[in-house]
Structures are given as structure tokens and as C-alpha cells.
Amino acid sequence: MLKTIKKVAVFTSGGDSPGMNAGIRSVVRTCAFHDIECYGIYRGYQGMIEGDFEKMDARSVKGIINKGGTILKSARSKEFRTKEGRKKAYDALCKAGIDAFVVIGGDGSFTGAMIFNQEFDFPVMGIPGTIDNDIFGTTHTLGYDTALNTAVEAIDKIRDTASSHNRLFFIEVMGRDVGHIALNVGVGAGAEEILIPEEDLGLDRLLDSLRRSKASGKSSSVVVVAEGDKIGKNVFELADYVEENMAEYEVRVSVLGHMQRGGSPSCFDRVLASRMGVKAVESLIVGKSNYMVGLKNDIMDLTPFDQAVKGKSKINMELIRVSDIMTI
Amino acid sequence: MLKTIKKVAVFTSGGDSPGMNAGIRSVVRTCAFHDIECYGIYRGYQGMIEGDFEKMDARSVKGIINKGGTILKSARSKEFRTKEGRKKAYDALCKAGIDAFVVIGGDGSFTGAMIFNQEFDFPVMGIPGTIDNDIFGTTHTLGYDTALNTAVEAIDKIRDTASSHNRLFFIEVMGRDVGHIALNVGVGAGAEEILIPEEDLGLDRLLDSLRRSKASGKSSSVVVVAEGDKIGKNVFELADYVEENMAEYEVRVSVLGHMQRGGSPSCFDRVLASRMGVKAVESLIVGKSNYMVGLKNDIMDLTPFDQAVKGKSKINMELIRVSDIMTI
Amino acid sequence: MLKTIKKVAVFTSGGDSPGMNAGIRSVVRTCAFHDIECYGIYRGYQGMIEGDFEKMDARSVKGIINKGGTILKSARSKEFRTKEGRKKAYDALCKAGIDAFVVIGGDGSFTGAMIFNQEFDFPVMGIPGTIDNDIFGTTHTLGYDTALNTAVEAIDKIRDTASSHNRLFFIEVMGRDVGHIALNVGVGAGAEEILIPEEDLGLDRLLDSLRRSKASGKSSSVVVVAEGDKIGKNVFELADYVEENMAEYEVRVSVLGHMQRGGSPSCFDRVLASRMGVKAVESLIVGKSNYMVGLKNDIMDLTPFDQAVKGKSKINMELIRVSDIMTI
Amino acid sequence: MLKTIKKVAVFTSGGDSPGMNAGIRSVVRTCAFHDIECYGIYRGYQGMIEGDFEKMDARSVKGIINKGGTILKSARSKEFRTKEGRKKAYDALCKAGIDAFVVIGGDGSFTGAMIFNQEFDFPVMGIPGTIDNDIFGTTHTLGYDTALNTAVEAIDKIRDTASSHNRLFFIEVMGRDVGHIALNVGVGAGAEEILIPEEDLGLDRLLDSLRRSKASGKSSSVVVVAEGDKIGKNVFELADYVEENMAEYEVRVSVLGHMQRGGSPSCFDRVLASRMGVKAVESLIVGKSNYMVGLKNDIMDLTPFDQAVKGKSKINMELIRVSDIMTI
Fold first, then answer.
1. N or C, which end of chain B has less CB nearby within 10 Å?
2. ipTM score of the complex?
3. Does D257 touch chain A (CB under 8 A)?
């Protein structure tokens, strides 16, 4: 028989991303809509262990849909990786009468939820919140679209100065394991080359490409590099290497860094967060557990946690080809 | 036997939208990539009639991927609606040796292309460029994503002042026939009510909703109204009606207007434009004609013009439900 | 003998403007720095009458320096215009043990403070917060610089579409009595004509200018109009008049409206707010009262309230000349 | 007797800054207004030597007032530092019939102009264009205001993520010799500490301040560091030092870098550029030479080049005090 859900908790976990607040708001309001009590947990799993809960109603989340960061804070918890830590967390949830939770985070956060569910048969649901878009089971994670815009706008500014001075810029964007950000930002910013973790084009190809670019009359160039690019050199070494081998270029480096994680979410991310929060809570209500909500073909969908954390979010090969054509 | 395409023309037609320049750039560079000559036509079909062409190579389109508007200008042409006008246009294209064209625009522009294709068996391909997202055969038109962000950012600013003063704002956004912009912007901006052309919720329901909103402790409210909302009153009349019936509110109106058409395109729109340009030119190369390129399930796809112009771009009913839940 | 100030209240009054929160933060933190208790008053003079006070310490104002609007809300109070209302306000302040207040607002708010000071010999200090920059005794009011950027960015977007279509846009910006916003925004946005309350250039001159503009090869034009322009027609009538008399133009209107009041303050406004808050509190501490703090020649300065409210904030005639030259 | 100026050249030199295009536009249009021919010189002094000139009229500069970078490109010229190089430049100017020039740049560019004027008695005028605001004789250089906003907006985003995670961020902003950017950005972004080249507060004071900040209940902190801060350690070493000595903080670094040089200029910078261009050209017309135009007390003013390059642009000590109070 279906156990009725009466109290749902929501929290954010792992690296923060724009849209997390909109996600919290949606979970809280969907609970209110269905007359379910809702609690916010501060600082992710660590706050769960410590019982750092706060009751939230529809008005608790006003004015946050457009705010970056997360009002519930985020943290990584070593203690939750231990059986003892998870037991403490379970006890704290029980003590507060909480029946189920929604975790907004990435791979690691979902793995934690999955284990917790196995150990205590506790209903859990996940919302993918990370700028990297590296999660299987959704075409878009919360914050990804915003991060693309943030990076592209920053590179637009850098290109102003690059083209005033005939310079070559190496610009590092986020994305340690997958090249979604680099590839889309590279195409969006009109980069001459894009280096991603999925492909090793080799340094020779890079030099060739930059030489062709120069020969074709381009006076300045931008190379977008993912943090974890396959060439394996960090962006400063890359810049040095190119400067040594191409005297004709004045080379500069810019690491966009943490600003990509912040900022007011785009309309897309706000709407996505609103949809995901509804789907997460209503899935719990109908008795589902251990799933991640996601966007597939523009429709809300569920993916079992074990698939979400094992699966690979693949790069769009068509887009790599588009990128090659655009840089002619 | 397949006629080889040697010279392709590209132009923008109808209302402009962010991403049109990125689309032009993509068409031009894809032509260059395939060693096809490319011509830009100024001022849409009118410029075609007048032979207002300019040869473009890969470097002609540098520095435009991030610019709003269209470097080729746009216009509506009465003359092209006549058989004589179209004959002139055909002669001008032939004289310049142009084999095929790519039109970036909306419904009306595609109808023109379709008729032109029927009359002269001239290869044509379309890229959907309009902020309204009202075209069948693509989940996203060029400029739509940018317009959503522009509108949401403007409403964020208005909400600052609304909530400082406990005011009720009626904000009109674009979208004469379909409510895509209003619905997404409304959810993204956290609007209390959203009025769209597809639904007549009635004035009573609006008043009820605002009263509940007030009763639930909200001190300020934002109502997003599509230009062509079903209630049929324009936004100023609506505001007057509410002010007369709800003395507790100080009501203000803001019409966002044409700023929604401009601005630097979002990363999404730049990438979409790049993909669409490649698809359009390469479809012409393989002998296709009379199609619109579009995005379906995140994949580039073709839709015959007659379906594109006859079909309806439907509102997402799930999102209407999400909107209702969010405004509790 | 100097009465020692022990408890200072701060509030915002009249129309809100970006930077008000940064001003509140500065007053609160300067009080904390000098070991003075600080109270926030909600909803301006009306909240003062109702005793709607809240004790604030340095941490109460964290995270607000970059937020538009005012966390203390603003309101207009009819009751405070009566002697009885002001007596109630005085009693409420006395009951709470408040010794002095800082009001952030415009002309009307300062007049209220001045009368209150005369009636009850109560120490008061003013910070000019309004986007209109219409206050004597400071070269910049809080929010003015931000509003200029907001308006210019909106017009940049409109110009994208104007120049794609060879259109003429009439754009109304705020500024009922003085043309500071219109003049600066007009120059900053490269407007062809600027209509301000201080000057009646006449409709004939406007038509002449637009005709010259067209003749000189400009394909699109933007005319910036202050709300209270001297020609006296509202922006829609102006547009109709021009369209009737210049068939060659397709005319459009955009009223920027309330979005100009909101948004995250510019760096300039945040710094100005910080400086003004310090000056206001430290002036009260040394026994001054009945002054407005202001920026003169980049230095913090005091102007007696009676001069601030009577004086005129004059338009920069050099800038009118610059505008004429730029539109050649 | 006054030699009549008939042909004026304009160019940008040294590091680029937002507003340079608006400055070029103003010089070109002011020339047109006074019926003086105007030439643009590409790539600064190097282009002058090479005779890389282009005639510009009022329409040549349309649509650039809001663009970052410089359409005339910029460069540093070693050759111009030699007498032979300058002679070549003089010959090229004479050959083109150019009577006078306006240089938009910084200290180094003005020194070049001053020497050139001495050697050839050639009329020269300077417009201060640099984001660093490090030039004597003007309260604001072109681009400074824009760079402040760019940096503050980037730090706002970083703070979102900092406060979600209780992190300490060291953020490096531009300003090698003077701390104007760091000081204003630090106050504007609500930084807990600001390290500038003018002051050596010492590492101990920094640790003390961060400890107090933590003790006072702040969960995250931002330290803004000028490139050339007096402590002398670069921002990465600083971060390491603090992390070693304050285990309670997770420390991160962000170098804002070249994005601060680009972007669309603020309204202030556009207006300033327009005023400076008018003043520069009209000063040449009345026979002045060897001056830099500048803003003093909101009025356009002239400063002899030798004073401009020798003088020091001093930090505002009041603002340092404001900063101390704000971080309580």
C-alpha cells in the first residue's frame, strides 16, 4: 500500500549553480499546493546529519527565483559517506517527521541519496543542479544555460580587446569531465578553436589551425579550453607553447573561473527549475522514489538514480562539425 | 539529375530577431566551407526585386555573431506579393547567377518562398527567425530564447520597484497570436497571473486570483499579459478595470515593446543559428528545396514549408499547470 | 551642549531608486562602527507613524548592496502631512528611544523632514535618493547613474531593430521636471533628437531636424523624450504628428517606464551610497541637523534642507551643445 | 598668427578601453560639424608611420558609440620611440595634408605626442583613454566607469557561489600602479578587504581582519586585490598564505583579467567621450596644442601634457575610510 507523504525536505548539495533557488521555490510551493509540509535543510547532507532544518511555506521562498547561489547553502559532507553519518541523518529526519526528500545537486549527491534509500528505504528524488551538464538522463541540468550565457558574455568583452590588439586569447571555461560548456560557448563566442576533454586534437593540429586562421586574414583569435581538455596541458602551458611556436601572435590567457557558477538564472533555467520541482514532488506523492527528474525532448521525465550516475552525457558530434565549419 | 548549387543567396525578412546575424554568418561560412559563392540580399524580398546584392565571403561576417538586428536589414515587400514583383526578383537572381536562396524569417516570409519556388522551380530553404516562437516544425525559433531573457530581466527590475511600493503591475510582452513568450516569461519572472491568447480565463477569475494573492500575504504582484490576450482588453483597460474593482491596489502598466526584439543573442540562439545555417546550406547542396530547418528533440530537422506555415505551434499545457502551482 | 546621539533610525521615502539598499546598509554599518544603535523604519513616514520599526545590526544588511528596490519599502503618507500625523510619528520615535533619523528620498521627503525638525527640534539628515537627479546640492542623486545605464541599454536594443527596418522611434524616459536623464541618455544612446522639459524647440524644428537626418543618409532614428517635455504633447501624440508629416518614416513608440527605477545599482551608485551613509551618520554625531548630504566636486558636502528643496538642479548647457554636434 | 586647422587625424594608442569608439565618433563628428576633414589612423603610432590612414565622415562612425574596443585598432610602436620613426610619421602626416591630431590613450601615448609636438611643432591634443584612471588632470578617464561596473558585476556572481559555500575568495582586478579600480570595486562589491598598491597593510593585518570578519558572523568573504598591490605577493601566493594560516576557510582565487577592458561602455563613458571629443577638436581649432582634455568638477578642462604625464592621480583617502567602516 502506498504510504502517504506528509512532510518533504529539500536541500542543495555539491557545487552550486544558478537556478537552485528557483528549484527550492518550486519544491516548496508544490508542497504547499498539495498541502504537504515542507522543510528546508541547510548545508546539504551535513545539515541533514546536524538536524539543521527550517519549516518553509509558500511565502518563505518569495523573491528568490531570480537570485544566484542557494539560500539553503551547500556543502560536501565526509560524515555522510560513513554508515554512522547516514544513520544520524536518518534519525534526524525521523525525529522531524520528514517522509521524503528532494536533493538538488549532481552525480555525487545522487549517489548519496541512492545509498541512503537502499539503507533506510527512505523515499528520495533528485533534481540535476550543476552548470556542467554532465548528467545522464536530462538534456539540460539546472544552471547550464545560465553558465553558457555568462561565459559567452565574458568572452565577448575579451574579444573587444583581442581584436583591438590582434591578440590570441586562450580562455579556460568550466567542465572538468565533459566539454558541453566549452563546445557551446566556443561556437557561441565564435572561437577559432575549442579544446574539450572528449577529443585530443593534438598540439600540431592546434598550431596548424591557428596558422590557417592567421593566413585567412583573421587578425585576432580566441581559443576556448575546457578545464579538463584532453591535450592535458593547462591553459597557461598551452599559451606558452603557442607563443614559443608562433612569434606572430601576442598570446594572453583568461580563466573565467567561479563567476560561471553565479548570477541570476536565465529564463530557461527558471522555467526548468519550476517544472522540475513540480515533477519531483508529484512523483514522490504518487509513490515513486530513487529517480532523477530530467528534461528529454522538452518533456519532464524520470531516470533511475543508478542509470543517472552511471550513464554518460555525450557531446553533440554534430556541433563539433558545426564548429569546424564556422571557423573556416 | 541533381543540379549543382554554385551560388547561394541569404537574406532576412519580416520582423527582425536576435540571432539573425549569427544565422547569416553561418550560411555564409557554410557556403565558403563547401566552395559555394554566397551573396547577401539587402532588405529581404524588396532588395531581391531591386537586385540589391552583395558578395560575401567568410571574412564579411566577422564580428557579427553577437550583434542584434540584421546587417542585411529587413523589410516587408508589397511588390513581392504580386506575380510581376516575383518575376522581377527571379530575373535579378538569374542575372546574378544565383541558384538558390536561404530566407531567415517567419510565416509570411516562408509563404513567399514557397510560392516563388512553385512559380520558378527555384531552390529555397528557410530558417525560422522570430522572437514569437510561433512556427510549426521547430521547438525554438531564432531569437525566442534571447527575447525571454530580455523580458525577464526587465520584469526583474520592475519587480524591484513593485515590491518596494506594494504595487500591482500589468506588464505586456510580445506575442500576438501565441502565448509562448508570456507563459515562459510569466513563470520565469514569478508572475502572479499570466494572460495568453490561447486561454480566456475571464476577468472574474483574474480578480479572484489577485484577491487570493493579496490574502495570502503577497504585498506586490506582477501580471504578465501577451499582446493578443484572449480577454481582449488591452493592457491599459485591464489595469483600469482592476483598479476600479480592487481599491487596495495601486496599479501600474508597463509595455516592454520593441526592446524585446533587439540585443545580443543568448548563447543558445547563437549556437542554434550556427546549426541552422549549416543544415540549410547542406540541405540545398544535396538537392532539397522548399523546407524549413528546425530543432526537434535537440536534433536538426526539416519541415516542408506548407506544413510549417499551416501547422500550429502549441502552448505547453504542462507549463500552464506549473504556473498555477507556482503562484499559490 | 551637544546631545549625544544613541539611536538612529533610517528609512526610505517617495519613489524608490537603485542604491537605496546600499544607502541603508551604509547608515546601519556606520552606526555599528560608532556603537550607535540603529533602527530601520518600514514604509517611510507612514511606518514611522505606525511604529513599524526593526532593530538592525551590521549583519542585518548583508547581501543587499547589489539589490534594487528597498528592503525597508517605501510609501507616501498623507497622514504625515498633518500636524496630528507628525505628532504620532514623534511619539513613536520617542517611545522607541530614537534620537535622530536619516531619510533617503527626494524633495518631498526632505520637506517633511524639515517641518518635522522645526516642530520637534528632532535631529534629521537626508540622503538624496531618486533617479531623476533633480535635487539641488548634489551633482548626483542615488540611482541616477544606474537609471542612465538601464535606459541606454534598453535603447541599444531598440536601435538594433530600428536600424534593421529603417524606422523612427520615439522613446520616453523618466524625468518629469528636469531633463537630466533624457539629455544624458540621448547623448549616450546616440539619439538624433532629445526633447527635454527645459527647452521648447518646437515641432517645426523637430521635423526639420528629422528631415536633415534622413537627407544626411541616416536610415533609422531615435528621438529621446523626457516625460515632461516642453512641447507638451505626450510621446504618442508626437509620434502621430511626425508620421502624418513625414510619410517616409515608419514611426514607433516605446515608453521605458518603471524598469528605470529598478535593477542592481551601478558601482558608482553603490560607492556613492556608501559615502553618503557615512557622511549622514557622522554629521548627526557631530551635532548637525537639517542637512542633505551631497556630492560636490567629488567631495562629500552638506546642503541645508531649505536650500535643497528650493534650489534648482540645472541642466548642463555644454551637454546640449555636445548633443547638437553629435547629431550632425 | 593662428594657422587654420583643415585636416585632423584621430587614433587610439596603448591599451584599449571602453568608450574609445565613442571618442573617435565624437572627434569625427565635431570635425564634420566645423567643416574640417577628418582621418582615422589605424594601429596608433605604428599606423601613423606606415601611413595607414582612412578618411572619415559623420556616417563612418555610425553604430559605434556602444561598441567596446576600438575600430581604429591600437598598438604599441617601438619605431615611434626613435627619432627616425617619428620623422617617418611626420612625413606621412604631411603627405596626407594632416594639420593636427587627437590621440586617445594613456601616459605613454601622451609622452609620444608631446615629444612629437616639440620636434615638429605639430598641433596635438590628447583624450585620456584607459580603464586604470591613473592620469593626472581628469577625475575620470574613458573606460574607467565601465570597468568598475564590469568588475563589480563579475564579483556579484562570484559572491553568489562564495556565500553558498562559506568560502573566501581572493579576486584580482586591474590597476598596476594605482588602486582606483580595486578601491571602488571593493567598496561597490562589499569586499571584506581591499589590497591596493598605495598601501601596505601587511599580511598580519589581513589575517586579523579575516578573523574578525569570521568572528562577527560572516560566513563568506571577498578580498579584492589590485594587480600591483603593495604586499607584493601575487594573488595566488596570498591565497596560499591565508589558507595555511586559516584552516577554517576554503580559499579560492579569481583573476578577472582582460574582460575588464572590453564591453559596451556605460552611459557615463559614452557621454564623457562625446564631451571630450568636442573639447579636443575645438581646442585645436582655437590654436591650442599639447594639452590633454579632462573632467574636473564636472567641467571640461585642459591640462598641459607635461603635467598630465608627470602628475599623480591620487587615491581618495575618504573612500579608504568608508571602506573600513563598511566592513565592520
1. N
2. 0.96
3. yes
